[in-house]
Design brief:
Number of domains: 1
Number of helices: 2
Helix content: under 10%
Shape: globular
Number of strands: 14
Strand content: 35-45%
Distance between the termini: 42 Å
Order of helices and strands: HEEHEEEEEEEEEEEE
Structural class: mainly beta
């Protein structure tokens, strides 16, 4: 079997899992707060297929029973907050390397927390197509999170999205 060049290996990854965008490492006490305000994590330009979307604990979370879910909102055209998922189980003392995973499927399906740090035993099996593009105007929207039950008081996290563009020039950027 021939050895593949790194650029070939990277291209095969893009073809299978799409483009990868991640946020900065975020302080939970600043961004995982309960309330009515959605925290925007990614900008979406045009129409994309979400192949994977997850939050990873960079450091251990606090003992608060925070729940979290993902939403899509659009400014062009105006589309109010729409749930992509339902809330997960509590992120109480989430271990470093554990993940909060968007599993796709029916809209508003609950997110799953991985059972083992550093190993994702769940993935997005049925991707969502989000965003808009009418052929002349590329839609502009965001993917955000809402938390409930309790604010996280410690720990850090990072959000990741793997996507495939579904309209000309479609792309995603990190907000944070």
């Amino acid at each position: 079997m021939a050895n593949l060049q790194y650029s070939t290996i990277e291209m095969l990854g893009y073809m299978d899992q799409g483009h990868h965008v991640k946020t900065s490492v975020l302080d939970n006490a600043t961004y995982l707060l309960t309330g009515d305000n959605q925290t925007e994590i990614f900008n979406v330009y045009g129409r994309i297929m979400v192949k994977q979307l997850y939050m990873e604990a960079v450091t251990e979370f606090g003992a608060q029973a925070t729940t979290m879910y993902y939403n899509f909102t659009s400014t062009t055209p105006a589309i109010a907050v729409q749930p992509m998922s339902a809330a997960s189980a509590a992120l109480t003392s989430l271990a470093q390397g554990a993940r909060h995973v968007f599993v796709g499927g029916a809209v508003a399906t609950a997110c799953v927390i991985t059972a083992t740090a550093g190993i994702s035993d769940v993935i997005c099996v049925n991707p969502h197509i989000i965003g808009t593009d009418d052929g002349t105007t590329q839609g502009v929207g965001t993917i955000g999170i809402l938390t409930a039950v309790a604010s996280q008081l410690s720990g850090t996290c990072q959000f990741h999205i793997h996507y495939i563009p579904m309209s000309d020039g479609a792309y995603v950027t990190a907000v944070l």
